[in-house]
Amino acid sequence: MKTTRHFPLRRKLGMAALCMLGLGASLSSHAQAWPAKPIRIVVGFAPGGTTDMMARLVAQGLTESLGQSVVVDNKPGASGNIAAAEVARATPDGYTLLIAPTSVETVNPHLFKSSILPSRDLTPVAGVGKSQMYLVTKPQSTAKDVRELVAQAKASKLSYASAGAGTPPHLACELFKQATGTDILHVPYRGAAPALQDVLSGQADMVCDPGIAFPHIRTGKVKLLAVVSEKRSPFFPDVPTVAEQGFKGANLDIWFGMWTPNNTPADVTARLSREVAKALASPTLKARSRPRRRKRRARHGRIQDLAGQRRQGFGHADPRPENHRRVSRSAQCPSPPSCSLAMAVSGSSP
Fold it and tell me: Are 245 and 145 in contact (CB under 8 A)?
C-alpha cells in the first residue's frame, strides 16, 4: 500500500527559506560576475547618425572601464521602435541595452501602432546627452538665410528629409513649418545619415540635421542657414537661430538615454549607470563633445557637454510642454506622456 508523507509545517518553511537564500545568492553572484561576456547596444537608426555615433562613443568608454567588449548593433526602422522591441524581448541580464532619443518613449506611442511601450516595457538606466538641430539646405540652394528660404518655400514646392516619422529631425522641421507658415513636403528616411545624403546630392531641399553634417558644412558641400534651437551653437557661434531671423517657435533639442529590459538585476543597472557617468566624464569624450578653438575645430564634434547633460538629467526631446503640444498637433498625435527616463535620472517629473 502506497503511503503519502506529510512534512511538518516547520520543515516546509525551512525548505522555502533555503530556496530563497539560494536564489538571492544566485542573483548576487550574477551581479558580481557581470559582465562576463560581450555587451550589445542596440540602436534603432542607420550607422552614421547622431544616435549611432553617440552609442559608439559610450560603447568605447564602457569597453575601457568594464574590460569587456561592447558592440553597437544597428536595427533601423519605425523611429527606433524595432530596436526598442528587440531590447524589451531580450533576456534581462545586462547584456542587451538600448540607446535612443527620448522620442522613442514620448512620441512614438502616439504615432505607431505597436505592442511595445518603452515607458512600460523598458527600464531607464542613464541620461546620455543632448544635441542641437541645424537647418541645412542642399548645395544648389540660392537661399542665404531663413527669410529667403521661406520666400522660396511659399513660391514653389520644397521638400525636407528626416531620419523618419516621429524622430526629432521630423518634429523640428514640422515646428519650422508652423513658425514660418510654409508647406514643405516631408520625405522620411531610415536614419539621419541617409537623409543627409539625399540633401548632399540635391534630391531633397533641406534637412533639420542633428549634427552629423558638420564636416560638409565646413567644406561648403551643404549650407547652414540657422540653428533650430533657443540658443546659438557653440560650434557655429556666428550662425543665428531661426528665432533671431524673425520666426519664433522653431526650436527643438534632442535628448538621448540608455534603457535595459525590465527585471534586469538592480545591481547591474546601478553599475551601468555609474559606468556611463564615468565614460561621459572621461577627458577623451569631453574633448570630442566640446567645440575647440576656431583653428583647431573637432571634425566630428557634435554633442554638447555630454557629462554635464548627464549630471543635469533630461526629459523629452524638448522638455517644454507647450512645445510638445505644438509638435504633437503638427505630427497628428496627442500630447506625449511624462518621460520615466527623465524621472529616473533627475529624480523628479519633467
Answer: yes
